[in-house]
Amino acid sequence: MQSYPPIFASFHQSLSTLLETPYGDMSDDLASIIVRRIEHFLHNHEQKDFNAWSEQDIFLITYGDSLKDGQKKPLNVLNEFIKSQLGQLISTVHILPYFPFSSDDGFSVIDYLQVNPALGSWEDIRAISEDYRVMTDLVINHVSRESLWFADFVSGTRPGRDYFIEEEPATDLTMVTRPRNSPLLVPTQTRRGTRHVWATFSEDQIDLNFKNPDVLIKMVDIVLFYLTQGTSVVRLDAIAFLWKRLNTSCVHLPETHAIVKVMRLIVEKARPGALLITETNVPDPENFSYFSQGNEAHMVYQFALPPLILHALNRGTEKYLAHWARALPEYPEGCTTLNFTASHDGIGLRPLEGLVPNNEVSELVDSMHRFGGFVSMRTLQDQSEKPYEINISLFDAMKGTRRGEDHWQAQRFLCSQIIMLGMKGIPAIYIHSLLATPNDLAGVERSGRTRSINRRKWDIEDLLSELDNPVSMQNMIFRTLKKVIEIRRKESCFHPDNPQKIIDICPGIFAFSRTDPKTGRHLIAIHNLTTTHIQIDLEQYKNYLDLLKQNPCHSEYLTPYQSLWLISN
After folding, report:
1. Which pTM was predicted?
2. Which of 110, 394, 506, 522 has the smallest number of Cβ neighbours within 10 A?
3. Which residue range is the domain that position 37 belongs to?
């Protein structure tokens, strides 16, 4: 075994031990290759430590071209907007895949090492990183069929020739968990004849073969490159599907978990304080498994939160949301959740499995259809189909309740955001929630993809005009959310690590407490999920201040969708 200085000896041993699960006897050699890359990285790049998370952390989720002006590069427009309109109200910008791509709005990557020239350059990414942390997607499970790697596969040329998974069409793949209803194997014409390659998500997104250790090393190189270009949060996209083994579900396999642990070690060694987040849109127990013993992901998405909040507000009940939140596990030290209510994808329904009755999920889907949304399906093992994801703008998802549309859209939407901003974890706001963007049906028509309904590209002049209009919905929502965020960032009870406890008050009310053990401060968050005025006993809180209104708490009832953040004076 190669001898390393103490700073790398334990690192090498840890890598080698983890790599035994996927790579067996090759683990020590692979660990040595990775250590040499880290040595080279640290020798050639200045160390930059990042601060631990706090109550001041707010993530903004956006595409690189969510804002455009037709002249400057969109990444430059985005940076100017964030700095001028949000300033330090946010800490981290998640720029969705900004690489050359062939489909899926960036998630079919052609070249991992280039910025899509239509968006800007690495200089623009580094410019954003000067004021904010940047979260970058490592689209690790698959690549575009237009990538050079896949061109190598087609021509039978190394290295890409051995980067993909081939199976015979007659192979029994019925046990494989599917997130889509597209064929799992895609026929491809190559110089060696027709080959059938594994494609979990679409015929344009060809899965990589991580049984080939060269693929892992390529991804390690890509992660290290991102860290040199301003990235401080690495998002592992679709990571659950990474490792394939016949006669299994091919999801959450031990080899996948081992590789996530390896990636965490690499990120922490190369950039102390940098973070790793896993994207696994699955039921809670599977999602939280990526914390492992505090040695895997630093953060996991709180995927159950968006559909549960939507269901609660659509039905006017706290029942399932409170039951779920009460049962949340204690997170390992150094781990937390990324809380969100909307993203570039739709609202996933898998996390509701086992939490909400099927008939109520069906009623929720029906409501979203009435409010202009769509639903995508996934194929089950028996080849039947089941709703997988609701595609709708979150603002328009709040048009009404299961009984139909009403005039409470804005208040209902703000309630959804205030709930998310108060809960344990780090909040992440999608730019189109911040801007109250309605359904983009024209975008769906142009692209032919239902997910485009929530991916509008605002003309910056049109947007600024709406934000300057005192009676526009964009102005009201944007202004209100900025105020709520500013209040949140000043309250230590909202530190991501501080405990949360669900409080039972009465039907239709979702309430919880947050406590700062260091100062003894205690905050009560109360939310009316209904269209009715609800009388509650606030006598015990008469000496509390409502942070949201900056007034003492004295009311005996909550108006529809009203929220209180009560803290003792």
Report:
1. 0.96
2. 506
3. 1-44
